Amino acid sequence: MSRRKVSAYVSRLARRFDRAPVDAQLSLRRLKPWLSPSRTGVLLRQKPAVRLIVAALTANRRAPIRLRQVAVDPKVTRANFGPVIVIRRSSNRLDLYRGMSAWRLFAVATGQHTYPTPLGRFQIVVKWRNPWWYPPNSPWAAGEKPIPPGPGNPLGTRWMGLSAPGVGIHGTPNDGSIGYSVSHGCIRMHIPDAEWLFVRVRIGTPVYIVAA
Predict the structure, then answer these.
(1) pLDDT digits (tens, 9 = 90+) for 85-119
(2) What is the per-residue pLDDT across 53-80, written as a single tens digit (0 to 9) for each?
(3) Strand extents, DSSP E, the chain
(4) Given 113, 184, 186, 190, which residue is catalytic?
(5) Is 184 part of the annotated catalytic residue set?
(6) Same domain, 189 and 100
(7) Regarding beta strands 187-190 and 168-172, do their DSSP bridges make them parallel or antiparallel, or are they unpaired?
């Protein structure tokens, strides 16, 4: 009896019967987040299996051997999925979800015709409190100077930068712009709304921007 051969046999059993866990996957259906069901995996405990088989062979026992498998939980499930943002560009609306459940809706401002807010799937990549505003490399900002935090800062008090270059969700001191397509591509919110949202999203939060 070769322990090495038993180990190789158990490895083949594991390759045949092990099942990897499957995480829930996010997509957008009818403009709402949808998560595919996750699936628990199973894993053969190989070392105990080898010991049981070697012991049975050594004792010349022919009774069936029950090998133990353990459950492997997925990391991402419908239950533990975090916040998801859906921005409706034409409606100037931001919808916040907990996974697939609606949480809160906000009126926002989005990009004007010449500087449209980009469409697609993005994520939050940076979060800043009391941000500086720096003029972007764009004709509309030519000659502008950086603006420190404080009253009149065009970013308000919170910045949530997206993976779309130069685009973010932020507060604005210009409350009258909310509900209109007047920005240079960013998503503006009332300052209290941006502060509320800031503490409920995280780096990596998915952001869908749709044309609706």
Answers:
(1) 999 999 999 999 999 999 999 999 999 999 999 99
(2) 999 999 999 899 999 999 999 999 999 9
(3) 26-29, 32-35, 41-44, 69-72, 83-88, 93-98, 101-107, 110-111, 120-129, 158-162, 168-172, 181-183, 187-190, 206-210
(4) 186
(5) no
(6) yes
(7) parallel
Same-domain pairing of 99 and 29? no
Residue 170 falls in the annotated catalytic set: yes
Same domain for 141 and 44, yes or no, is no
Residue 78 domain-assigned (yes or no):
no
0.85 exceeded by pTM: yes
**Which of 48, 72, 96 represents a domain boundary (last residue)?**
72
Number of domains the chain contains? 2
Note whether 66 and 120 are same-domain residues: no
Token pair 């940076």: residue: 126
The three-point CA angle 31-111-135 to 5° equals 135
Active-site residue (options: 113, 170, 184, 190)? 170
What was the pLDDT predicted at 103? Answer: 98
Taking the chain, what is the end-to-end CA distance rounded to the nearest angstrom? Answer: 69
CA distance readout (Å), 46 to 21, 69, 97, 124 = 18, 9, 42, 41
Q: What CATH number does residue 108 fall under?
A: 2.40.440.10
Look at residues 72, 95, 129 and tell me which one is the last residue of a structural domain: 72
Quick one: 192 and 113 in the same domain?
Answer: yes
